[in-house]
Amino acid sequence: MGKQNPPLKSTHRARADVRTGNANHNGPDVTKRILTAREAGQYLGFKTAWPVRELVWKGDLPKVQLSLRRFGIDRADLDHFIETRKTVEHIR
Hints:
Layout: H1 11-20, E1 34-35, H2 37-44, H3 50-58, E2 64-65, E3 71-74, H4 75-83
Antiparallel strand pairs: 1-3, 2-3
């Protein structure tokens, strides 16, 4: 017999991967400009979305209002957030 092809993903799961940007990896899809709170949290190294939500609520991180209840985070704002918080310690 010939070589068998691997089983195909279900259509529902394949659509979910396209919609969420999950390409069989755990990190955010860095080609997307607007990230979800969870993806933004992963981008910043957090395990959950809660630290990102708290930064938005405190006004430390701008959000993009996507609908009445949903918001996203611009990757450029995350990069700016990181750059403005870099510090250098001088050891004496």
